[in-house]
Design a protein that fits this description.
Pfam families: TsaD. The chain is of the alpha/beta class. The chain has 11 helices and 10 strands. Strand 7 and strand 8 form a beta hairpin. The protein binds adenosine-5'-triphosphate, magnesium ion and fe (iii) ion.
Length: 337
Amino acid sequence: IITLAIESSCDETSVSVLKNGREVLSNIINSQIEQHKKFGGVVPEVASRKHIENINGVISEALEKAEVSFSDITHVGVTYGPGLVGALLVGLSAAKAIAFAREIPLNGVNHIEGHVYANFIEHKELEPPFICLIVSGGHTHLVYMKDYGQYEVLGKTRDDAAGEAFDKVARALGLGYPGGPQIDKLAKEGNSDAIQFPKAYLEEGSYDFSFSGLKSAVLNYLNSQKMKGLDIQVADVAASFQKSVVEILTEKTIKCALEKGVNRVVLAGGVAANSGLRSYLQGECGKNNIDLKYPSLTLCTDNAAMIGCVAYYDYVRGLRSNLDLNAIPSLKIGDHY
Ligand code: ATP
Ligand code: MG
Ligand code: FE
């Protein structure tokens, strides 16, 4: 099966060609970061327009890089949610047009499932079951993945997503967009014990997360330093904030794996690129005899290869999407339309 996959849920126009779901022949990622930087975040209208401008070129590039033509493609996969509705519709329309013209099957894919499946591309031997910590720009989930397409959501954020917290704190520190990578870089130069920021554990036994209190604590700290006329050591703030996020994510994930009796943990989503999270979680997993897997940096953030991988496994399980498939901006993990 040769899958052509399209991802356009946010600010990356990406197209990938895959063979049997896990072998990536091409994975072209056209990022709009430059266009959105000056606004400090993704502007939905701008994103939709850019996707329209880019999509055909990115499809051609993906085919060329994979050294295949349209006639070699036997299957189409596309993100239909969650994400920005206008952005999703661009990829969805292109995918439907290809499936219709070539008379080949179409599978609509949940973007968040895509983040999880990035690990199947990275680690060829990896199979469910495992506990997955999904930490992206808009989502923070602790999930028990029992089998392909089968998820039990054990915990999620009650307010901000982990990536969102990184982006908001970075913005307050004047670091620009997207903030996660900047904080990660600066944190390496700072003292993570310089400032004690809170960690929200919530009720005993809960696997849910909350990051808005931490974000507010950072903003309050910055304001009070300014009021007192004191210097702000940006690297120390970045390191101390990151430490709080990393520790809470790690503690809950390990506890969850131990309580569920699952000895494999998988990390997914844009924040999985965070070097502090990778190394701390790795260390704690090691201490508890838990095997940890995470994707390479390019596969952590948005890309179409991960979408193609989900589409392939859905197809193999007999799922198909119709040509009237619509974009679903608030699609939940495990839902199918
Ligand atoms: P979602 O997947 O929830 O729909 P999204 O697609 O916008 O949201 P992703 O592409 O998964 O999000 O990830 C982008 C997020 O990852 C941003 O919030 C970004 O700041 C964060 N991020 C990227 N690299 C790092 C890093 N090294 N450290 C921390 N955060 C990072
Ligand atoms: Mg993005
Ligand atoms: Fe994403």
